Amino acid sequence: MMHELLKLKESYILAQAMGLKSIMATVVAIEGSSYRRPGVRMLLFENNTMEGAVSGGCVENEILKQSQSVFLDNKAKIMVYDGRYRLGCEGILYILLEPFSPDAAVWDALETVVQQRNPLEIQSFYTKTEGVQLGLGSEFHFEDKNFVFSNTQLEKSLSTFTQILKPRFHLIIVGSEHDAVQLCHFASLTGWEITIVASAKDQKKIANFPGATRLVHLLPEEIASLSIDNETAVVLMTHSYTTDLKFLIELKNTQPAYLGLLGPVKRRNQLLNEFFEYTQSFNEGLLDVAFGPSGISIGAETPQEIAISIIAEILSVIRKEEPMSLKYKNSAIHSHKVKLMSDE
User: Fold this and answer.
1) At 163, phi and psi to the nearest 5?
2) What values do phi and psi take at 36, rounded to 5?
3) Which of 28-32, 70-74, 88-92, 282-286 has the lowest mean pLDDT?
4) For the segment 282-327, what is each residue's pLDDT rounded down to a tens digit?
5) What is 89-144 written as a DSSP string?
6) Cα separation of 280 and 288, whole Å?
7) Comparing C-alpha atoms, which of 104, 77, 94, 98 is closest to residue 23?
8) What confidence tens digit (pLDDT) does each residue in 14-55 have?
9) 206 phi and psi angles, rounded to 5 deg
10) Nearest CA-CA partner of 320 in 306, 343, 297, 338
């Protein structure tokens, strides 16, 4: 996911400043089941440290051991990890280990993609034969530009794994009270991009909201200045009925992926009734994604539990999954709707 790549970028830049070489490990294919799907990555550094994970924690040490030969000879290789006898998941992982030394132009292009909320494509060229082979490696595709992971000649006739990384999911929290702080904190752990919308009179700073990407002080009529696309959720939680109503009215022509209304059913009904009364025309699709009370029923009581409940509902909506206990799910745990492609 995009937020994982950004985290790897930060660690790479720190390692580079320390003069450490880096190796990227990418799961390019699996057979059977696994904890994560193809496209998950981690970075290994020559001081025997690593950033990220490709499993629940049982494969990483083996990857670190396998990476030592790549540090020595600077040649990409395929590692095959058979978890059928070592893991709880009965799967085989094909992991591409390659030198990672992109130049500064890569990070400039990535910054532009992030700021413009554009997708990013990564292609990896691999085989399922273990060991060093010519032509193995990966490259970034930023719109019309390609950047290899390292100074390696890629063999593009090999099997290809293509991954599309969408922009980070964007959560707009309208409100700045204690529960908004908790929602911001827990949502940040998912890697979402988070915007806090506070009152123009509010003195709070972004430091008051751990994990927030930005804090803006806006009037309701200024909410349209924010980018609200189909990868955005909006939660109204100002604790002022009048203010929530004003923001709801100003959102009338937007189409977020999710719109959360805090408070009981009676408050939601009153909000929507007055919304209809004061709004002559609006995007009817907005009501399809309006959820109030916001959150799923898990018995949440504290602000922290309520935040988890709201995040869970947002995930269920954007992933188009009905909330249920996994013990009752007969199909695969992981959805296969994510855009992952292989020419195999």
Assistant:
1) -125, 135
2) -125, 165
3) 88-92
4) 999 999 999 999 999 999 999 999 999 999 999 999 999 888 888 8
5) S-EEEEEEEEE----HHHHHHHHHHHHTT--EEEEEEE-SS-EE-TT-EEEEEETT
6) 18
7) 98
8) 999 999 999 999 999 998 777 778 999 999 999 999 999 888
9) -60, -25
10) 338
